[in-house]
Amino acid sequence: MEKKNVLIVYAHQEPKSFNGALRDVAVSTLEEDGHDDPEHFNFQKELSHAAETGKLADDLDMEIKKILQADLIILQFPMYWLGLPAILKGWLEKCFPDRVCYDAAKMKWFDHGLFVNKKLILSFTTGGSASYFSNTGVFGDMDVLLWPIHNSLRVTGLQVLVPQIFYAPGDIACDDRKQMLANWRIRLRDIWKEDPFQLVHIDNFDPNFGFELSEKYVQDYKDDTLGPTAGQYM
């Protein structure tokens, strides 16, 4: 199998947490599959505008180079307050600059973005069971909660995969948590074959009218029962 580069962004304060165990499964599984050549991470070849101008701190420059080199990005985190933990939100805000990870001025974004050949997956734990995150649950539909995260990441062109969600690992038996880890390992084996979930193509938004859905698209789908995504209602 062709070697790939994987960037795992681990966002949890406690290494012994279940998120830590999920990270370890990802690392060991991918290393076993041969994605572990340390000399292959030649970041110097991945120059960005920010690096060329010397306006970024060294640590941020290095993080961006990791992103540019990665074939797959795994965001591993616990869901806090129905969203990303602050440490991960800060990382995203600082490490995906315009003209480096996408170019809005040239419309090199979304389906025409710079990262169209890269995959990304959210792998995260929750404090509540799956029923909490249904359309009748106390926290609401998980797809709606994840919409702003997924769509903002897609600005770069990333192929966003169906998320890997581990519901309430702290409330289940040890054997059930072990099964969660085993299922994650199984998915990672074939994750390269997965297709991203489909969202409305950027060409269906009219740049002359504030990037709203084009009238043609609205008319074509006006009789559908559901809107095209959680974020665009008809």
TrEMBL record:
InterPro entries (UniProt xref): Flavodoxin_fold, Flavoprotein-like_sf, NAD(P)H_dehydrogenase_qn
Keyword list, A-Z: Oxidoreductase
Positions of the Flavodoxin-like fold domain: 4-185
A Pfam family assignment: Flavodoxin_2
PANTHER family: NAD P H OXIDOREDUCTASE-RELATED, NAD(P)H DEHYDROGENASE [QUINONE] 1 ISOFORM 1
UniProt family annotation: Belongs to the NAD(P)H dehydrogenase (quinone) family.
Protein name, per record: NQO1-like protein
Native organism: Mya arenaria
